[in-house]
Amino acid sequence: MSLQVFLNDRLVPKEEATVSVFDHGLLYGDGVFEGIRVYGGKVFLHPEHIERLFESARAIRLEIPMSPDEMTRAVEKTVAANNISDGYVRLVVTRGSGSLGLDIRRTSDPQVIIIADTITLYPPEIYEEGMPLVTASTIRNHPQALSPRIKSLNYLNNIMAKVEGSDAGTVEALMMNHKGEVAECTGDNIFIVKHGVLKTPPIDAGILDGITRRAVLRLAREAEIPSEEVTLTRHDLYVADECFLTGSAAEVVPVISLDGRPIGDGKPGRTTNRLLEAFRDLTRK
Ligand code: PMP
């Protein structure tokens, strides 16, 4: 059976799930989105994702034409209709179609799109062996230009950084912020472990307030692993004992080198593996 996509108020076969070429989501990247995992048929950390979606929309003055409860039910309905047990949900709200100008007052009909499908982001080896990383020269957008806390459809700066990673043969790339501090990767947050302490850049480094990042900080607390949200430089990463990334799609991925410098002994670290296991227990129990 064809994938069923939720569009505005109902499920339609994917071939019929289309939006206007005048939609400002397409014309200007004007809209917001979420990427959410489904484990065992259950939408993982659903309320946190719905809240972030509505906060992103509020920040760009986009009125979502349904309530958070209705959105929650629409996601659940889409997951069930497609028999997704373990998968991924892409939730998109566009500004809707309008004139060719930028004026949001001349747009109407925000489009709500929910796609639920299976997902394989990285091969299983990457979780066992870890991944190399390079630093992109493209920086994360300046928080005063567009807050990285807004999960907007405007991902071009991340895409440009990802191209740099691909050119260097890596699947992710590290992005610095406008002050030259470590921010995050193109689609993941970053953590290091140094002398037994888990460290990750604070939200005000100009990063997405990642929901997997929050979950891992909670797991660290439960496991009594000391953690801090602290400014990190690239040097801190070079001399870290361990490094890993977090994201809804990526989950927890060990990083074994940065810019050709092995991190620690160049293998996934002990604390990383502990947190990866704890994350698997949380999601797959
Ligand atoms: N940073 C960026 C830029 C992202 O796109 C994502 C993925 N949504 C993340 C971090 C990780 O966030 P989350 O754990 O909420 O998926």
TrEMBL record:
SUPFAM superfamilies: D-aminoacid aminotransferase-like PLP-dependent enzymes (SSF56752). It catalyses: L-leucine + 2-oxoglutarate = 4-methyl-2-oxopentanoate + L-glutamate; L-isoleucine + 2-oxoglutarate = (S)-3-methyl-2-oxopentanoate + L-glutamate; L-valine + 2-oxoglutarate = 3-methyl-2-oxobutanoate + L-glutamate. Its cofactor is pyridoxal 5'-phosphate. GO terms for molecular function: L-isoleucine-2-oxoglutarate transaminase activity; L-leucine-2-oxoglutarate transaminase activity; L-valine-2-oxoglutarate transaminase activity. Its EC number is 2.6.1.42. GO terms for cellular component: cytosol. Keywords: Amino-acid biosynthesis, Aminotransferase, Branched-chain amino acid biosynthesis, Pyridoxal phosphate, Transferase. Pathway: Amino-acid biosynthesis; L-valine biosynthesis; L-valine from pyruvate: step 4/4; Amino-acid biosynthesis; L-isoleucine biosynthesis; L-isoleucine from 2-oxobutanoate: step 4/4; Amino-acid biosynthesis; L-leucine biosynthesis; L-leucine from 3-methyl-2-oxobutanoate: step 4/4. InterPro entries: Aminotrans_IV, Aminotrans_IV_CS, Aminotransferase-like, B_amino_transI, BCAT-like_C, BCAT-like_N, Class-IV_PLP-Dep_Aminotrnsfr. Transmembrane segments: none annotated. GO terms for biological process: isoleucine biosynthetic process; L-leucine biosynthetic process; L-valine biosynthetic process. NCBIfam families: ilvE_I, PRK08320.1. Belongs to the class-IV pyridoxal-phosphate-dependent aminotransferase family. PANTHER family: AMINO-ACID AMINOTRANSFERASE (PTHR42743), AMINODEOXYCHORISMATE LYASE (PTHR42743:SF11). Acts on leucine, isoleucine and valine. This is Branched-chain-amino-acid aminotransferase.
